[in-house]
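User: Structure please.
Assistant: Input sequence and predicted structure:
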Amino acid sequence: MKQEIIQRIQSVIENQPADAQEILSELKEILNAATSPTPIGKESKEISDLVSTFLPLLKEGTHPRALIKTGFTDFDNEFGGFALGEFIIVGARPSMGKTQLLINLSLHISKTIPVLYFTFDLPEFLLTSRFISTISGVGISSILQHNLTEEESRKLDSVQQQLSRHKIFLNESCNNSMAILRAICQQQIQDNGVKVVIVDYLQMINLNASRNSRELEVSRISNELKSIAQEFNVCVIASSQLSRSSEYRKEGRHPQLSDLRESGSIEQNADKVLFIYRPEYYDIRADHDGNNLAGFTQIIVAKNRTGSLGNIKLLRDAEFTTFRDFDEYYNKIRFCNNRLDEIDIPF
């Protein structure tokens, strides 16, 4: 134990974190681990005792794990949603809709469960604008260009009241530091009961460990996010960039686990890996039957520790920062090129 503590402190010194707050956060983490009443891990339990606890819950129809509904009907029906303690990866190429999907997830989940949203890719004002667009049904371009019609202005009047029903805490202040991110998570979990942590996106985090390769650094980041999910019993959802491999794949451009960028440990640590695929992104405008594919999106479940693999269909409306259930709106839209702003937003 003593030697391990010394080695961890030496590692902090050698890596020379960028600011004092990060040094303090890492040292605090080391001390907390050293003074924990069960430093070598959780207490061992007999399997018969665990079964006697879980069986009554299963018979009553109560799942031993608390499930978190995503708000997308087909996904929740097929895969059950997410669970506390899980580390979820949402992977896609740039501009495929990662942030848009995370916004939709956070809005639905936060109606009943507090959500902490770390934004590294977008500044706070731009992310807030996207939330406003999704809730109000006012196009993001109108909001950012300050070019609102009277009707759009009226729609914005109720946004604050609607968002007050959602417990979402946005944070862009951790300087992309893993140690500070962990400290903020711990504080928000204690102070506000946060149960879901969203990280947008994983490759933007750094450990200030300049002597390590980027692949090793991403591996450590992935390990840390998994550790946060398990240690604090929260669901961590992190978006991740994908490599260009899928764009050159002859057999099709659907993403695969091997496309996860910079580290195989992301695939290894994740409980679920979700990929976003839009044919429109690759200028594929129609399917083999001639159906217009504008907005058509597949969410591919490429890894699922607790269930089956597969995919579900969504419809994407980029202007209103929204994904919608495919089946629910198909009869209204029929893959036409009409605007989607007349359809109710399900948040």
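The two ends are 50 Å apart (CA to CA).
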